[in-house]
Amino acid sequence: MTMAAPIGSVGSKGAAASGTTDAASPWRHFAMAALIGALLIPVSFTKSFHLVEMRLYDLFSIVGPPRPPQPGAVIVAIDEPSFSEVGQRWPWPRDLHAKLIESLRKAGAKVIAFDIIFAEPSEDEADEKLAEALGPDVVLAADDVTTPLDQGIQTTRVNPIDPFLDADVSPGVTSVDLDGDAYLRRMPTYADGFAAQALRLSGRAATPPPEGALIQYFGPSRTYPTVSYYQALDPENFLPPGRFKDQIVLVGLSLKAATSADSGTPDSFLTAYTLTDENLTAGVEVHATILDNLQHGLYALPAPRLAMAGLVLAAALAAAALSRRGVSWRTGLVACGSVLFFVLGAWALLRFGRVWAAPALPVAATLTVFGTRFGLDFARERQMRHAVSEAFSRYLSPELVAQLARDPGALKLGGERRNLSILFCDVRGFTTLSEKLKDSPERLTSLINRLLDPLSEAVLAEGGTIDKYMGDCVMAFWNAPLPTPDHALRAVRASLRMMEAVTELNGVLRKEQGDTAPVFAVGVGINTGDCVVGNVGSRWRYDYSVLGDAVNLASRLESLSKEYGVSLILGPATAEAVRNHYVLIELDRIAVRGRATESAIFTVVAPAVERTAPMIADLETLHPRLLTALRAGQFDEAAVLIERCKILAPSLSTYYTRLTARFSERGGAHPQKG
Question: Can you tell me the distance from the alpha carbon of 577 to that of 656, in angstroms, rounded to the nearest whole number?
C-alpha cells in the first residue's frame, strides 16, 4: 500500500459524498433556509427589535434626505436673547403676545400659530387684549392628556380658555407620541393637529397621515428660518422687509441652553439628528417639520409586516441558492454583496418610495443562512480531516498529520534547508539496567516509559519537535516545522528541563522502591547548523525528519558527554547563540569530519545572572588558563589549576579528573581525534 493511496481515497470519497448529498437532496438546504427565515420572522413583532428598526430608520433617513422646495414656516423663537430684551420671567404677560400678533399681521403673516397652551386665565386686562388680537388667522395650542386608570386609559382634551376660543381661533393639538427610547419619530394623526390646522388656515390641504407614518427630518436643530421673539415685535427695525409676507409663522420656546441630550427640556425632543450632533430639537421646530411632511407627503410609511415576512423568507432562500455549492471566498463576496443589496435597497426605497423596509431581518436571514452553510461545510471538512488524521496518525508525526490534513497535496517526498538546533538525549546505564531486568521486561518497559514521558514533555514545553525514539534515546530538533528564532536557547532550556525531570523521577522512584530503585542519568548533546528537514523515507514509509552533518555532530556530542563526565555538551554554534544567557566553559577541542580546524565543545555551568558570583567569576578566569597549560604540556601548573577548579565547580569534578588522566596518559596536551 502506498502512502498516497489513503489520502486520495479519503479525499475522493469525502468530495463524492458531499456532492452526492447536495445533488440528491437540495431540498434540505432550502428547507434549512426556510426554517431560519420562519424563526426570524417572529422577532420583528418584539418591542426591542422594533427599536432596533427605528434606530436604523434614524440612520437611513438622514443620508441624503428629501427636502421641501422651501421651508413651509418661519419660526419665532422664544429664546435667550428675547428673555434678555423683554426683561421678564416666563410666562410673559399675554398682552405682549397680543402685540406680537398685531406686529406679525402688519408684516403680512398669513397664519400665526402659538405652540403655547393658554389653558388658565391670567390677568384680566392682559387676557382681554390677547382675545381682542386673536382672529381666524391664529392657531392656539391644545393638548390631549392621557391618564391611566384601573378600568383603562382616559384621554382629556386641554383647550385654550373660552374667551380665546370665542375669538374664532383654531385650536391645534400639539401632542406627540414618543417611541420606547424617547425619540420622536411618529407623525401625529390628529385631524385637528397643530401643523394640520396651520396648513388649513393657509388654504392648503392637510390630510392626516396613515397610522404609523414616520417623520422625515430635514436637518438638526435650527434648520428652519428662525427669528427671535423680540425681533418679531419690531420687524421694521430688526428684520429685512417682507420677512413674514404670506408666511406661516410658528411661535414657541427654543432655548439653546436646554437643548442638549443630557439636560433635556419639556418642549424639546430627541430626533434622528440627535445621533449626529447630540442636540435636541425644539418642539416648535418639530411642528414646522411635521407641517412640511404633511404639505409635501415626505413622511415614510413602514412596510407591512406581511411584506417584511415575505422579504425575510425570500432573503433566506436567495442566500440558500447562492450558497448551495458550498462556501468559499467567492461566496463570502456574494454574502457581502447581498448585505449591501439589502442596505442600499432599503435606503433607495425610503428615499424615492417613502417606504421604510428595515434591512435588519433580511440581512440577519442572509448572514445566518451563509453562516449555517459555512458551519456545515466546516464540520464536514473537519470530519474529512479527522479521517485523514486517523489514517496516518500511526505512521506520521502529529505535526505532519496536521499539515497533511490542511493540505493533502503536501504528501510527497522532499525537504528544505534550514538552520536547526538538534538535541540527542541518551539514558546512562540503560544496558546494565536491561540486563538486570531481563526477566522482568514489563518492569523495564514501565521504567523507560516513565522516563521518556518527562523527557518528551521537556522538549514539547520548549516548542521542540520530537523526531524519534531510539530505544532509550530521544532525538528532537527546533526551528521546524514552525520557525523559532531562538531555537538554540530553547534547545538548551529543554536539556536543563530534562535533567531536572530525571532528578525528580529518581526521587519518586526512591520513595516507591527504596534502595533497590534504579538511579537514572542522562547525557545530552546539542548542535546547531544547517540541515535538510522534510519528509524522509521511501514511497512506502517515511517520516518528518532531519539530515545533515549537524545532526551527526549532535549525536557524537551526546556520546562524548559520558567520556567527559558531564551531562550536557554544546556544539560551537549553539554555544555562541546562548553565551549571553548562560555561563559556559570550553571542555575541549575536537576534530570534525570535513573540517581542517578543530571545533571547541562547551558545557553549561550556570545561568548568566550568576556570572558575577565570586566562584563563577574565578572559574571563568582559571579554566581557560588550565586548558592553555595542559595544551602547552605545563602539567605542574595544570595540576594546581585543576584542584582549584574542582573546588570552584564540584559538579565538574568528574570532568577534571578525567581530563587529568587523559592528558597524563598521552603525555601531553593533544586534542581528541574524531
Answer: 25
